[in-house]
Amino acid sequence: MSHGPLMLDLAGVELSPEERERLMHPASGGVILFSRNYESPAQTEALVSEIHGLRTPSLLVAVDQEGGRVQRFRDGLTRLPPAAWFGQLYGENPKRALNVARSIGWLMATELRSLGIDFSFAPVLDLGGRGSTVIGDRAFHRQPVVVGELAHAWMSGVHSAGMAAVGKHFPGHGSVREDSHSSLPVDRRRLEDVMMDDLQPFQRLIGEGIEAIMPAHVVYEKASGQLAGFSDFWLKQILREKLGFQGVVFSDDLTMAAAEEAGGYPARARCALESGCDMILVCNNPEGAVQVIEELSDYTDPTAQMRMIRMHGKGTVNREQMRLDPRWREAIDILVDYEDNPVLDMNFD
């Protein structure tokens, strides 16, 4: 059974019979985990193992483990700094900042791989200091070149741990204040400004082999009247053709308020896939997920299925062996500095 185009969530720390049935449906291709699914490393490792054992090839299992405000798994794992911390270090010592980003990227990925997680939805490639309340310290820096440098270093660490990377939120969420979880953000800048600034980090990481991209639930009104994740212009003309991206395109969550303009859940799913997404996320709404499963019962895209193979985690990681790795001690020592000097306000505004 090949990967379907739908990534689903779970209600708790164990699979329910209904969830198991949904995940066995051909339309399903992956699972995204949240804090509510995490109780301990041992419990999560068992849950991921059960999910992986349901099908062949195994369903993809992902999580948002950026660091800072967005770190779903905490107890028993290392507290990770927000991306903006690396940007602060860069202002003091660029070479050290790149080495630190690489080391912490490795740590994040290695800890997740020890639980069996395939990948994290990271890094954030949005620009800081442009007014976004939802991005804030999730951005590495306000300068596109620096974002690209730090994100590339971070991604190289992730790759060395056997994990793929997902850049978000294409083509850039940093210049809108609204949160797409609760409203419809509209970016009113000239298209030239978006292309000159926000696209730079995405172009850099695409050139460095990033495996996946997630578009923003943002309307860039000078370019297209549609959300970027539902836009042929952004996903086909710019991302695929102009930037030459050949990896996976994941939609952002289709249950977010900004996605409502595309219609009901089945319409949102079809629109996202037809516009260029390879896999779509439907979270926190089981009824909507069932509607999408029914809508996509006959959907197939062999090209997207081939792309998704790259998203599986590589190699196995034992937690005890991980702690004996010199890279683990190096990363932990680095984070002692963060714990002693935490960044309290990094919204760049």
Draw up the topology in text.
Layout: E1 6-8, H1 17-24, E2 28-33, H2 41-52, E3 60-63, E4 65-67, E5 70-71, H3 83-92, H4 94-114, E6 119-120, H5 144-160, E7 166-170, E8 186-187, H6 191-207, E9 212-215, E10 219-220, H7 232-242, E11 248-253, H8 265-275, E12 279-282, H9 286-295, H10 302-308, H11 319-324, H12 326-340
Parallel strand pairs: 1-2, 1-12, 2-3, 3-6, 7-9, 8-10, 9-11, 11-12
Antiparallel strand pairs: 4-5
Helix pairs in contact: 3-4, 4-5, 4-12, 5-6, 8-9
Structural notes for this entry:
With 349 residues, this protein is α/β, with parallel strands linked by helices. It has one domain (6-289, 313-340): Glycoside hydrolase, family 3, N-terminal domain (TIM Barrel, Alpha-Beta Barrel). Helix content is 42%, strand content 12%. The protein contains twelve helices and twelve strands. Helix 4 (94-114) crosses helix 12, helix 5 packs parallel to helix 6 (191-207) and helix 8 crosses helix 9. It starts with 5 loop residues before the first strand and ends in a 9-residue tail after the last helix. The relative contact order is 0.14.
Assigned CATH superfamily: Glycoside hydrolase, family 3, N-terminal domain
Cα-atom radius of gyration: 19 Å
- Overall average pLDDT: 93
Which sheet architecture does the biggest sheet show?
8 strands, parallel
DSSP helical segment count: 12
Biggest sheet strand order reads 6-3-2-1-12-11-9-7
Shape: globular
Element pattern in H and E: EHEHEEEHHEHEEHEEHEHEHHHH
Instruction: Please give the share of residues in helix.
Output: 40-55%
Class in CATH?
Alpha Beta
